[in-house]
Design goal:
604 residues; ABC transporter transmembrane region fold; Rossmann fold; 2 domains; 6-stranded mixed β-sheet; 4-stranded antiparallel β-sheet; 10 strands; disordered N terminus; disordered C terminus
């Protein structure tokens, strides 16, 4: 399975604590790696940030000079000069703020775009078993809402955090220059305030992650209901699903309110602490002015710097929640990026030899990773010659579809081996292996788009003439031409605008265009009516010509003409041969046929 995590139960608590801390920091550090290709823009944005923040620290000094010199001397010339300088600095600061905002926003959008691509690329490389263990809505939530949170982090929160951090540091330095005594009074609130921020931040982080998980659960349920709306309505479960959704939304609302309470408490505490500090500074500073120890301008500039520092502390406290929320979203995104798959190309893949589709199962054993103690296949050995058709029959759960999934290497065998054209499939590149194997399943998968797009999915470079030729061979051209838009007809999501037989023939046309060496038919006609099945059977017969074919089926009509029929029972081959030979054995195959006939008589 993908993403194995090994943990020593004897790991010391201190080491585990360090590891957990590293895990929390690593996603945010990984985000910095995404910024590296654009480091020039980042550093330019940083310079603009430094300049604009530095210019902001000039204003209290200008206020001090205006009070102590221009106003005290009643000098309009000095006052005009100070005002003119401040206006000029405001224009310069505005330019640098624009540059900083533009560049940081550009970086945010660029990093998020890169992140979306990387996550989707990673998803495409994960095996089906990974998706079977997760809901589609959860994955979509990570690609949408979580990535949006990261967009806010890189494009806005990070820039604001840096700006307020620089203002905080610069303001404290200027405060020390102005009056060390008053600065020490103000700084007396910082250590306990930092402890409060850290404690609240940890709690907000946990609550934010829980809220994001709740949103993922809600999105998952919505995706399931929307994709199964006909089933929901046929069982008249609209009210129940509406109630379930309302319950999930209300639960998310309660979690949001809980998070809001914590963030509001944090902001309130910070504001209270800063306000008390301001009152104390005003009282102590006023006494210093009355005593003649400092000027009114000094007190004014000190108060302005204090306001700047207080505003920075308050903003950082508010941003703390956003940063914690972004950290939670980043963790969820990088869980996908850090997931590794055991199903991957070998370090030095062998080239696939030329051939007609020879397949060999050699003492194959298999069990799923989450049920390692329950074997699904036991010592399966089977030779399939090039061009041969082999039918796999047996009751549900016998291991038929599992064998075909192993051949495509969606899982790896736990024992024995599978070879294709004489080469162990684990020594082949996945693209070489899967390019020459095509499956037509019971429920063919079509993508929203045109019929042309769906057939050409097998070969995007195919010409319209080649697509039409494949459709003719699949007995699909006639019904396609019956549509007003012909091959440009939109099939709808999952092909809902087409009938089952039409979808199946589109899938067969796609398989014909792919021109595989090995064809897998997995219950390809089991859900069709008699008329559609006859048309699909004709298309399949055309598709099977000259190709190795593995047929997974129950219907007698789809297996009796196979070159070989392999009967599976509880993961073992119990019988093998042609139809007439197996009937003569009076064994498992005959019982399967008899049960099918009885079901047909009863249903008739």
């Amino acid at each position: 399975m993908a993403g194995h995590i090994f943990q020593d139960s004897k790991t010391p608590a201190s080491v585990e604590k360090i590891t957990n801390t590293s895990k929390r920091l690593s996603p945010l550090l990984a985000l910095l790696d995404l910024v590296k290709p654009y480091r020039a823009r980042f550093w330019l944005a940083t310079v603009a940030l430094l300049v604009s923040s530095g210019l902001g620290l000039v204003y209290p000094q200008a206020a001090r000079k205006a009070v102590d010199q221009a106003l005290a001397d009643h000098s309009m010339t000095q006052l005009n000069r100070i005002a003119a300088v401040l206006i000029l600095l405001a224009f310069i600061q505005g330019i640098f703020i624009w540059v900083r905002h533009y560049l940081m926003s550009w970086l945010g959008e660029r990093v998020v775009a890169d992140l979306r691509v990387r996550v989707f690329d990673r998803l495409l490389g994960l095996p089906p078993s990974w998706f079977h263990a997760r809901h589609t809505g959860e994955i979509m939530s990570r690609l949408s809402s979580d990535v949006t949170v990261i967009d806010g982090l890189v494009g806005t929160e990070l820039s604001m955090a840096l700006r307020h951090g620089l203002t905080l540091i610069g303001g404290i330095v200027m405060l020390l220059v102005e009056n060390a005594k008053l600065t020490l009074i103000m700084l007396s609130i910082v250590p306990p305030l930092v402890l409060v921020l850290v404690w609240f931040g940890r709690r907000v982080r946990v609550l934010s992650r829980a809220l994001q998980d709740r949103h993922a659960v809600t999105a998952t349920r919505v995706e399931e209901v929307v994709s199964s709306m006909q089933t929901v309505q046929s069982f008249v479960r609209e009210a129940r699903e509406a109630s379930t959704y309302r319950g999930n939304v209300d639960a998310g609302f309660e979690q949001s309110v809980h998070l809001i309470r914590w963030r509001a408490s944090l902001f309130s505490i910070v504001t209270l602490a800063v306000s008390i500090a301001m009152a104390v500074i005003l009282w102590v500073g006023g006494r210093e002015v009355v005593a003649g120890k400092i000027s009114g301008g000094n007190l004014l500039s000190f108060l302005l710097y204090t306001v700047m520092v207080a505003a920075a502390v308050g903003a950082l406290a508010s941003l703390g929640g956003a940063l914690q929320r972004a950290a939670g979203a980043t963790e969820r995104i990088f869980e996908i990026l850090h997931t590794t798959s055991d199903i991957c190309d070998p370090p030095d893949p062998q080239p696939l030899p030329a051939g007609g589709g020879a397949v060999r199962f050699d003492h194959v054993e298999f069990s799923y990773a989450n049920r390692a103690d329950q074997s699904v296949l036991h010592g399966i050995s089977l030779d399939v010659a090039p061009g041969q058709s082999v039918a796999l029959v047996g009751q549900s759960g016998a291991g038929k579809t599992t064998l075909t999934a192993l051949l495509q290497r969606f899982h790896d065998v736990t024992g024995g081996s599978i070879s294709f054209e004489g080469v162990d499939i684990r020594k082949l590149a996945l693209s070489d292996l899967r390019r020459h194997i095509v499956i037509v399943s019971q429920e063919p998968v079509l993508f929203s788009g045109s019929i042309m797009d769906n057939i050409a999915f097998a070969r995007p470079d195919a010409s319209p003439a080649e697509v039409e030729s494949a459709a003719r061979d699949a007995h699909a051209h006639e019904f396609i031409q019956g549509f007003s838009n012909g091959y440009q007809t939109q099939v709808g999501e999952r092909g809902v605008q087409l009938s089952g037989g039409q979808r199946q023939r589109i899938a067969i046309a796609r398989a014909i265009l792919a021109d595989p060496r090995v064809l897998i038919l997995d219950e390809a006609t089991s859900n069709l009516d008699a008329e559609s099945e006859a048309l699909v059977q004709k298309a399949l017969q055309r598709l099977m010509v000259g190709r190795t074919t593995l047929i997974v089926a129950h219907r007698l009509s789809t297996v009796r003409d196979a070159d070989k029929i392999v009967v599976l029972e509880q993961g073992r081959i119990v019988e093998s041969g042609r139809h007439d030979d197996l009937i003569a054995l009076h064994g498992t195959y005959q019982r399967l046929i008899e049960h099918q006939v009885v079901r047909g008589v009863i249903s008739a």
